[in-house]
Structures are given as structure tokens and as C-alpha cells.
Amino acid sequence: MTLLLVVLIPFMGALLPPLVIRSGRNTCAVATGGVTLLALALLMSHAPAVFSGEVPKAGVDWVPAMGLSLSVFADGLGFFFAAMILVIGLLVIVYARFYLSREDPMGRFFAYLLLFQGSMVGVVLSDNVILLLVFWEMTSLTSFLLIGFWTKRADARQGARMALVITGGGGLALIAGLLLLAQAAGSYQLTEILSRGEMVRASPLYLPALLLVLAGAFTKSAQFPFHFWLPHAMAAPTPVSAYLHSATMVKAGVFLLARLWPVLAGTEAWFLIIAPAGLVTMLIGAAIALFRNDLKGLLAYSTVSHLGLMTMLLGLGTPMAAVAAVFHVINHATFKAALFMSAGIVDHEAGTRDIRRLGGLMVLMPVTGTLALLAAASMAGVPLFNGFLSKEMMLEEAAHTSYLGLDLLFPVLATVAAVFSVAYSARFAIGTFLGPVRGDYPHHPHDPPLGMWLPVAVLVVPVIAIGLFPGPVAGPLVALTAAAVIGGPLPDYHLALWHGITPALVMSLVAFAGAAALILAFRRADALRARLPRIDAKAMFEASTGMFVVGCRRSLVALHDGALARYMGVTVATLIAVGGYGFWSATHGAGTRPPLPVTATALTAFLALVLASGGVLAFHGERLTALILTGVVGVVVALAFLQFSAPDLALTQISVDVVTTILMLLALNLLPKATPREQSLAVRWRDGTVAGLAGLGVAGLAYAVMTRNGTSISEYYLTQSKPGGGGTNVVNVILVDFRGYDTFAEIIVLGIAALAIYALLDPALKGAAVRRIKAMLPRTESRDAHPLLLVVATRVLLPLSLVVGAYIFLRGHNEPGGGFIAGLVVAIALIMQYIASGYGWAAERMKVDAQSMIGAGVAIAGLTGIAAFAFGRPFLTSTFGYLHSPVVGTFELASAMAFDLGVFLTVVGVMLLSLAQLSRVAHRVDPSPESREPMDVQLERTVPRTAGGES
Amino acid sequence: MTPLDHMIILPVILPAMTAAFLVLALRHHLKGQRTVSIVVTALLLGIATFLFAQASDGTVRAYRLGDWPAPYGITLVLDRLSATLLLLTAVLALCVAVYAAGGVDGRGRHFHPLFQFQLMGINGAFLTGDVFNLFVFFEVMLIASYGLMLHGGGPARLKAGFQYVAINLLASVVFLVGVGLIYAVTGTLNMADLAMKVPQVAEADAAVLKAGALLLFLVFATKAALVPLHWWLPATYAGTSAPAAALFMIMTKVGAYAIIRVYGLVFGAGAGPLALAAAPFVIPAALVTLGVGAIGLVGSRTLRDLSAFAVIASMGTLLVAIGLFDTAGLSAGLYYLVHSTLAGAALFLIAGLVQEQRGAASDRLLPAPAMAGETLLGGLFFLAAIALVGLPPLSGFLGKVMILQAAQAAAIWPWIWALILAASLVMTFGFARAGSVLFWASGPASESRAPPALPLAAVVLLLGLTVAWTLAAGPATDGLQLTARQALDRSAYIGAVLGPDVRLATGN
């Protein structure tokens, strides 16, 4: 389990730095270092086992269903990489403590760094491919945060985004690749997959899996043509560059190729794709590095080149090349991290990283200079340094490589790359540290505090030690790691300084000679380069992503133009298409039910319906006319209900129609009177066609339904209405009993609507809205707002209407009626008071609050339903009984009536609230004094005013 | 019946009665409303947890309203699927209520009653076993969401609200047409009864029934914002207040849920000539939805627009999984559903906070003076973005991988993989751009106050739940596999609703 902790400790420890930063920067760095040290110690506790050939494993299940487990293993490869990540991490933490300035939020920096560290250790120790993917993408994300650490710098933000898109995108391809790989191998555990190489290579999924895995590896390890993000990641603080972008994260791709080497390597495709990709990257990286003036830029391209070198070696597919790759990973990590830190020191102390403004620093900063020169010598591949050894091995392998029959391709290009590599190393060393001391550095340079150069020194130690005594110092580690990569017996190799006169030595000598010439002729070479067309990857990336954004924005605006008519058009067209498909793709037989005879009444109603509908279409611009014509539709529908023996529905339809018409009229009063014509004739034809087809479709379906005899559950309602529901009015029993739950929800719909109207119109009562409506309203109004006849009639009718309402309510269970209709009738009666006598007059006399009525209605209906609980029955179970009263005689009392009362109250409340709120708006817009005439005789007022004249 | 048996109906009537109480008694008392609303929502969470635990035994429970036998009365059905969604709704609702109590609820009237009614509608839709009753609860949801959507006012909100209600009313009409056609052929509205009768449809009636089924599917697809029926979503989600948008995260899921119920069960694999009626449309449309979401996300100019398109993209991903109509797809989809609800809600709430903090610049994706709490909000945004894009280590990644794995059952799986992964890349880019502008590219600090505590707590809670969902992915997926299996099991459902004898009669 301690192996799992190696991965988890950095994550848990990431909480620490932001917490302890208050105690000072030293404490913060010590805490971070302590976390890393702890992880390292735990890892090292497995060292004896690993070196004795065991493979420590640990794990817990995470999501067994998807094959994801939190399992880790430390074979030679994983152990080596994890150790490297933690050791260099420790050095970087020390270095960063002194590198970061006071203004930089160090707590956050170290938290990000630890998150990265955990992710990276996770990548190299994962035993589960999905877990590996998790950590892989997390390195991209944490790298995004670290590159963008100086958030206010535009180049940092751009660099961070570019790195995220490229490496994160590669990671997405890797998801697909590793899933396919797991599928081909039949396991998600790497330890299993590694033993099933034959099976995988024989699988048809091999090639797609390989290509997708390479997409992940190449992006991460900055292989051509995905190399361009790495130099721009240099906008990060130097500790990040040293850690992520030279020593660890960019090696994740190389690691992955090494990890999967036993499974994927050894095929034509592997060699043909990877080896040249590595070779080209090595060459291009080295060539560009030579001409970079920014120290970090130079080192970044050098890193690209070295990553190419490692990739090429792994791509060659021979065990010997794999050993060389592993050895170079070790060597590169040491000298390159040292060089990045040195570059950071130079930047820190001299105030610039521009090679053209530097030189002669050896005198001013001897310690840094010495260390940097030693590391640079290793980078150049000078004998006695570790870089020399692995480069020799690389050249040796290249010398024996024939690509598609081209024997010279690899040896020549590798030598050319070596020429550039020596040259840029020399340029780095000479341009920065050698030559005369200058007087124009932005700062006055001197050696930094111990904390900054010590990590460099620690890294330079192995550079020399391995260089001098490769066998004893690095031998066991290389053997261990290489064995894990190859997954079989190690080739016969010998880590040594002197192998005799080999092709590699000759190539090396050529490289040194060529580099010397190149350095001497640098000015001319640079001038030549300046004349070559320059490919600015960042500008291209920014331009293409910019174009992508613009493209997205344009298509977004084109698609979502906010035109409801178009949205509706597409929606209805979809309905027609899919509905039509549904109909035509299944079997259909014409209905057998004979049609009813066409009576004169039916024909009249039909024509009225058609005319009214057509009228609405023609006059929809004139809203009042359109509203009245819709009323005709309502009446015809009500008549149809009557015709087919549904008086309840007819009554409901009529009253609903009346109420909505009244409310709509009130609302229309506050709206513009006409609709502007906005659309061209062509658009209207198009929309008309769509709408017409939809109408025909619905009509056709309705016809199909009406011409067939279906059996349905309605028989049950007819037979059970009286014995089970206690009422003979089946419609009412359905409403309040069989499907009382629907009704309960529907009255709530009404209630919500009223509350929403209330809330919606509330802001309309305020100044700005009122002014807008005022400006819009016509100035001419009816002279007589409150006609005498109407006022008198409504007031006289009020008690009568209320009695009718009560009557309809009470008889509802057996005869047409019920709470819903009664509510509408009463609401109409009350609304008429408002219309006839004005809002103020009526509101003053309305003692019951409409909102309370809604609340009470819903509550009563709900409580009636809940009451059934007391009898151990489900919600809304009804009961009924017969009461005998001396006066009225026997009458029925059903619990459903209480429910119906709730319905009644809600309906009345809803209508009144909607009306009241509309009227309040109207009243605000036109706050003329209310009419108290003609019926309210007020004794104190002696001079009567003319009725309605003041409005 | 024991009192505990009534627990099934409580997720509907508790919020309904609470809303009525708030209107009756606490209309002018915002603080009281807040307290009652939060307490009741917490209570709802307790009830949902109880129901979830109850449903975990694998039994499908029916609750016959009015004590009428099915299929004549309305039946509520509690199974693992509905219990899961009830629990998710309650969790989300509690976070939203807490956020709203930070002050948004005071910007208009009746926030809390509308909120409670909304919960009633959502819970009702998840519980019902009756197609017409589903319509009724869709109406409750629609009208309550309309009220919530407009809450606080403003012309942009009003315009978006009008489109929202217009498109959804069209959907309601089509719902009625669809239900009408289905009823005309089968003579029943009860889902279990339908599941029995649909396979036996007469040859002459199949066309009408299938037309009805597909029209109904389009209604659910509209609710689920499946392209090309998604028009209402971007402006609505981006136009409304943060808590309303966060709560609406569950509403698109109601559409997805209805698709699972009706097209996994009634018109599912066992539906004879109409088997898997909607299946040919779901995955292709879902892939287009994902694409539209990703492109819209990059093209957005405000954080709220971006969030809305992230929702569309996540609905696309979700419906790819559901469209597989098999156990693996459904369980992956359900895992993703929970994830995307929590993460999406968090994103909307963060967008709300950003909008408040940035003052005049609002949530436009342009540099502005640094806001107070930039680092904190940026960090929360980073987490929410990771979750929504589906990058590791959060649940979005796990859900996405599960969907990729399940998608291999489909013939077009390479397309599904390519589109899902490409969309992830595009979304990564979009989120990175937006985040770096909002939280990194800011100028000198403005004089805004630190973000308010309650809303912040709600965001942290939601993201914490996302993390918990990630950590608990193992047991969660185990449970969801059972849920998916049960949801696609016709005989258990029919047996629970119509009685075991019927199950024997159907022979499956």
C-alpha cells in the first residue's frame, strides 16, 4: 500500500502550501519539500525489492464496472521515472523558493507543483490504463496552471492554452488508443497487457490503437509536427520549465512508448512511423535551437531535439536502441534541468535571457558559469560527460539503420542533428558565459544565493560521475530500467567511455568539426536563416484558433438568431418529418367505422369553424378581431361537446372561453394594437407550407383515429362511477376521483400561472414600464367607461351568479357542473364587477385576497387527499355517504366535494388575481380617479358627478 | 397500508402543500419563506433518501392514487430509476435553495412558492406511471419554470421567456396529439398497461400508434434539448437567474428520463412491431447535439451562454448513452446524468457569482478589472469546467469513458468515439479561453466585495458532491447497473403495476 501512497501523498500534500504560506515562504518551501521527500522515502523503501527483480504492486478497486482500479506497480521503468520525478522535484522546490519573488503567490505555486508531481508519479506508476489516462490528462491540466502561473502576462496565457489544447487533445486521442489497446489485450491492467504483446499485435485493433497512442505520446513529448507548443510553454516560471518541460512531463510521451514497447514495438508500422518522426524532430529541434536568442527558447528547442532522439531510439524497435533511449533519458534529465536552472539564474541576476545581450558572465558569476558550462558540455556530447555516452549509442544505432532501403538516411541526418546540437550547446556556453564582460546588463549580475545554485550543482554531479564511470554509477539503473522496457533478456551492451574506433565516434568527430565551422560562420548562417520563410507556429495556432472561434461565433449567430418563427419552423418541420416517417414506416389499415351523417347543423358549425380559423389567419395582425374570431372556435367546440353528450365539457369550454377572452382583452389594452409585418412573402409562403403540412398531418391522424373502433378503459369509468365514486356524472367523477390527481396538479398549474402573472407584472407597476406603456397607448378612450346599464346589470346579477355558482358546484357530482365550472362562473360574475365599475371600486369591496384563495384552494384539495392517510388509504381516496335531513331530504356527501371546493377556490382565486394584477397595471398607467357612480350614494357628497365622465 | 407506504407520494404533495402554505401565510415574509423552503427541501432530501434506500431492494413499488386499480386510476411507480432521480432532484434543490437564499430570491415575488411548485412538478414527472399524468406534470413544470425563469424580470429574460413558453406550449400540444393517438389505438394511458398492449397492436393500427409514439418522442426530445429541437434552451438558461438555471439542469433530465421510461419500456426492445421505435433517431441526433453544444460553447460571448451550450453538449453525450437502449449504455448514461446535473448546476451558480462580482462587465468574456475572490472563483470554475468537459480526475471523465465503452455496442461506434473526443477537445479549448479571460486577464482590482457566503457554500457543496460522485463511482456504477437492468425489465414493471397475474399472462 505504501506504493499507492507515493502517488497519493503529493495530492494530499498539495493542500499544505496554501495553508502554511502564512507562516512564511521558507516554511512553505520546507513543507512542500517535506511532502516530496516523504513520497521519495516511501518509494525508496521499495528500492531493494525492485533491484532484486520483484515488481511491487498495490491497488484498490475504484470502478470495477469500467475496469478502472487505483492500482500501481513499480517495475524498473516505473521506479526509475518515479524516482527521477521526485528527486528533480525536490531540487526544483529548493530552487523555486529562491527564484520566486515576494509578489508571486508561492502557496499556490507549490500546490500546483505538488499536484503536477502527483499526476506525473501517477502516470509512471499506474498499472491500470484508465488510471494512467486520468493522471496523463491531469499533468496537462496542472501544466496549464503552471504555464499560466503569471496570469497577467498574455504570452503566459496563450502558452498555457496552447499547451493544454495540444497535450490535452493528444490525451483525448490517447483515451481512445488505450481503450482499444485494452480491448485488444482483453485487460485494463498494464501488467496483463504487457504480457500479451503477440495477441495485441495480431489484433485488427493494433493499428488504430497504435496511431491513437502515438497521437498522445507525440503531442506530450513535443514530436514534430506537434513540437511547437513546448517553446511557448517557456512563458512559465523557470522552475516549471526545468521540471515539467525538460525533465519530466515532456518525457511522458517517451515513457509511454517505453512502457508499451513490449506490446506495440517490433512491427513495421511502429518502426516506419516512430523512427522518422523522432529523427525529424531531433533534426528540426536542433536546427531551430541554434538560432534562438532566448536562452530558454534555445533550451526548449534543444529539449524538443533530445525528445526526438529518444523517440527515434524507441522507434527503431531494437533492444539495443531501447537501452540507449533509457540511458539518454537519465542523462538528459540531469544536464537539461541543470541548464534550465542556470538559464533561470542568469535571467534572475542579469535581467535578460537574450543571448545577444549576454556574455562574459563567467567572470561575474563563476559558480553558475562553471556549472552551466559543465552541463552544456554534456548537452553537446563532449567526452567525459554523460551526454557523450548516450549520444554515441544513439549514433551507433542510427549508423546501422536502414529505412525503406535508404541506408544513409538515418546516419546522415543523425550526424547533421549532432552538428547542430554541438553548435547550439557551444553558442549557449560561449554566448552567455565566455567572451568579454559587458557593461550593459540590465542588472548587475553576481552569483545567486546557495539555494539557487545548489540544485544545479547536485544535478551536475551525476553528469560528471556517469560520464567518467558509466558502468558502476548508472549501470544497475540502466539495466533495471531497460529490462523493464524490453520485457525480455537484455542485449549484450557495455556502458563505457571507449569502444574503439566505431562509426559513432567518426560521426561524433564529424559533428564537432561541423559545429566548429558552423559557429565560426554563425553570422552568415543566421543571415541565411533570416532569408528563409519563417514559420511562426504560435501565430499560426492563434490565427487558426481565432478563425475557429470566429467560425463558431458565426455559426452560432446564424443558428441561434433569436427568431422564434424560425425556431418554430424547424421544430414543426421536424415534427412533420419524424411523425410522417413513423406513420409511413409502419403498417396501416383504413378505419372501418362508418362516418356520421352530415347534418345541416354540423355543416354550419364546420363552416363556422373553417371561416373563423381562416379569419384568424387573415386578420391576425388586428388582434382584437383575431381574438373575437378565436372565440368562435371555442363556441363551435363547445357545441360539438354538446352534440356528443358531454355537457360538462361544453359548460367548461364556454366558461373558459369567456374568462380567457376577458383577460386577453384586458391584456390587449396594454399592448400595441397591431402587429408589424416583418416577413417577406417568400418566407411567409415557406412558413405557411410547413404549417399547412402540419395541419394536414394532424387532420389526417385525427381522421384515422375517428374512423376506427377502439376499445378503451372508459367502459370501466362508466360502470364504476356510481358504485365506486358515488356520482353519476362520470366526467366529474373522473375529474375529482378517478383522475383527481391530475386535477390536483392542474389546479396547481392554474395557481402557478396566476402567481407567475402576479410576479411578472409586479415590475410593470414601477415607473419606467408604466411610462413606456403610457407612451404606447392611444389617447382616445370610450367616453363612458362605466356604462350605467352594465353597472346596474352586473351588480344585480352578482348574487344571482353566486347562487348559480353554488348550485353548479353542489350538483356537480351527479349532474353537469362541479368545482371547476362553478369557479369559473363565480369568477366571471366577480370580474364583471371590475369591468363595469372599475378596478378601484371593486378592489375596495373585495374582502377576500385572491392569493390566499389560491393558497387555500390548493391546501384544501391537498388536505382532502391527505385525509385518506388516516384511513390507511392512498392519497385522494374518496369516500361518500348519504345524509338524511328533514328539510332537504336525503343528499349525498362525498369527500370529493371537499376536493372540489379546493378546485373551486383555486379557480376563483386564479381568475381574480390575474385580473387584478392586469387591472393594477392599467390603473397605474392611467390613474384617473375611480368612478363611484352611479350606484354608490354617498351622503357626504352633495354634488353628484356625471357618471363615468372623468376617465 | 402503513404510514410509510405513503412516503411515495410525499415528494409531490410536500412541496405542493409547502407552496400553498407560503402563499397563504408567509407571503410578505421573505426570511420566513427562506427558512421554510430550505427546511422543507432538506426534509424532501430525507424523504428521497428513504425512498432511494427502499427502492434499493430491487422491488418495483406501485402506489395507486385514490385506491383505484391500475390501469383505471393513476399509479405512481417507485423503482430504482425514479428513486435515483428523486434523490438527485432533492440534492440539487437544496443547493439551489441555499444559493437563492443569498439574495436572488428577493428580486421578485414568489420565488419560493414557485420553486416548491417546480419541485412538485419534477418529482411528479419522475414518479408517475401514467402517460397523461406525465403530461400534467410537464405542465406543472413548464408553468412553474416559466415563473422562475422570469423571476427578477428584465427585457432579455422576458424575450427568452416568451420563446421558452411558446416552444414548450407547442410541445405540449404535440404531447396531447401523441397521447391521443396512443390512447386511440391502445385504449389506455397507464404505462405498464401500454407496455402490455403495444406489442399486440393490430397491423392496421400500427401506423397510427407509431406516429403517436414518435411525436411523443419529439416532445421528450424537446425537453431534453435534442437538436434540432433545442432552440429554447440557450436563451432560457442564459437569460434567467443563476439558481433558476441551476434548477433547470434537472428539467432537461426529465426529458431524458421520459425517453428512458417510454422508449426503453413501453416502446422498448420487447414492443413487437414497434420495438425501439425511437432508437434510430436518438444517437444521430445526440451526436449533432453534442457538436452544436461544443461549437456554441466556443462561440459564446458570455459565461452564461457558454454554460448553456455546455448543457446542450452534455445532453448530447447523455443521449448517446441512453440511445443505446441497453444496460451498459443506460447505466453509463445514468452515471453521467447525475454528474452533468451537479456539475452543470455548479457552473451556472458560478456564472451567477461572476456576474455579480464583475459588476458592469457582467459575465461577458472580456477582460475587466479583477474582482474580489478571483482566485477562489477561478478555482471553482476550473473544477466545474474539468467536470463538464469530462477531463480527469472528476466524474465527467469516468462517465465519458463509460459511455465510450458502452458505445461499442453500436455499429457507428467509431463515429461516436471520434465525436465525443473531438467535442471534448473543442470544449477544453472553449473553457480554457473563457477561464483565462475571466480569471487571468483581469486588470487592476476593482472595489467589489468578497463573494457572498451562502451562494459560495452552495457552489462548494455541488462541486464537493461531484468529487464524492467521482470517489464513489465504484458502488455508484454497481447500483446503476441494477437500476438500468430494472428500468429495461418490462415484466417487473408490469407485474408491480398490474399485479403478478398479469405478468404471468404476458409470459415475459
Automatic annotation (TrEMBL), chain A:
Compartments (UniProt record): Cell membrane; Membrane
Where in the numbering of this chain does the Na+/H+ antiporter MnhB subunit-related protein domain appear?
790-912
Question: Signal peptide location in the record?
Answer: none
Stretches assigned to the MrpA C-terminal/MbhE domain? 684-761
- The segment annotated Disordered runs over 926-951
NADH-Ubiquinone oxidoreductase (complex I) chain 5 N-terminal domain sequence ranges:
66-110
Presence of keyword Cell membrane: yes
* Ranges of residues in domain NADH:quinone oxidoreductase/Mrp antiporter transmembrane: 126-404
Entry GO terms, CC: plasma membrane
> Which Pfam families does UniProt cross-reference here?
MbhD, MbhE, MnhB, Proton_antipo_M, Proton_antipo_N
Q: Where, by residue number, does the polypeptide cross the bilayer? A: 76-97, 109-125, 131-150, 162-185, 205-230, 242-264, 270-291, 298-316, 358-388, 408-430, 450-469, 497-522, 563-584, 596-619, 626-644, 650-671, 683-706, 744-765, 786-808, 820-842, 854-876, 896-916
The annotated regions of Basic and acidic residues compositional bias extend over 926-943
| Molecular function, one GO term | antiporter activity
Is the keyword Transport assigned to this protein? yes
Q: Which UniProt keywords apply?
A: Antiport, Cell membrane, Ion transport, Membrane, Transmembrane, Transmembrane helix, Transport
Check the record and name the InterPro entries matching this protein. CPA3_Na-H_Antiporter_A, MnhB, MrpA_C/MbhD, MrpA_C/MbhE, ND/Mrp_TM, Proton_antipo_N
Membrane topology type: Multi-pass membrane protein
Q: Would you tell me the protein name for this molecule?
A: Monovalent cation/H+ antiporter subunit A
Question: Organism, per UniProt?
Answer: Xanthobacter autotrophicus
Automatic annotation (TrEMBL), chain B:
Which residues span the membrane? 6-26, 38-55, 81-104, 125-149, 161-186, 207-225, 281-299, 306-328, 334-354, 375-395, 415-441, 453-472
Where, subcellularly, is it found? Cell membrane; Membrane
MF term (GO), any: NADH dehydrogenase (ubiquinone) activity
Topology relative to the lipid bilayer, per the entry, is: Multi-pass membrane protein
Give UniProt keywords alphabetically: Cell membrane, Membrane, Transmembrane, Transmembrane helix
List residues of the NADH:quinone oxidoreductase/Mrp antiporter transmembrane domain: 129-421
**Which cellular component terms (GO) are annotated to the entry?**
plasma membrane
Any one Pfam family match given in the protein's UniProt record, by short name = Proton_antipo_M
Q: What is its main location?
A: membrane
Any GO BP: ATP synthesis coupled electron transport
The domain of life for this entry's organism is Bacteria
Q: What PANTHER family does the record tag this protein with?
A: NA(+)_H(+) ANTIPORTER SUBUNIT D1, NADH DEHYDROGENASE
Return the similarity comment.
Belongs to the CPA3 antiporters (TC 2.A.63) subunit D family.
Protein name according to UniProt: Monovalent cation/H+ antiporter subunit D
| Species this chain originates from | Xanthobacter autotrophicus
